[in-house]
Amino acid sequence: MKPRGMTLLETMVAAALATIILAAATALLMAGGRVVHNTEHVADSHDHARLAGETLLSAVRQAGAGMSEGLWVVSSGAPQRINPVFGGDGASSGVLASTTTGNVPATDGSDDLWLVVPDRSYLGRDCAPGAAMTVVKPGTGSLEVNCVGAPSGAPPANPMMVASNMKSAALLTQTSVTSTPPTATVNYLETGVPGFSNAPHKGGFQKGDLVYPVRLLHFFIGTNVNNGRKALMRAEGRPGNDVSGRPFVDMGDPVVVQDYVEDFQVAFGLDAANTGDPTRYAFQNGLKPEFTPGLRSVRVSVVATGRTPRRDNRSEAVLSEDLPLTVENHTPAPGAADGYFRSLFSRRAELPNLASASL
Question: Can you cite a GO biological process for this protein (predicted)?
Answer without folding.
Answer: type IV pilus assembly
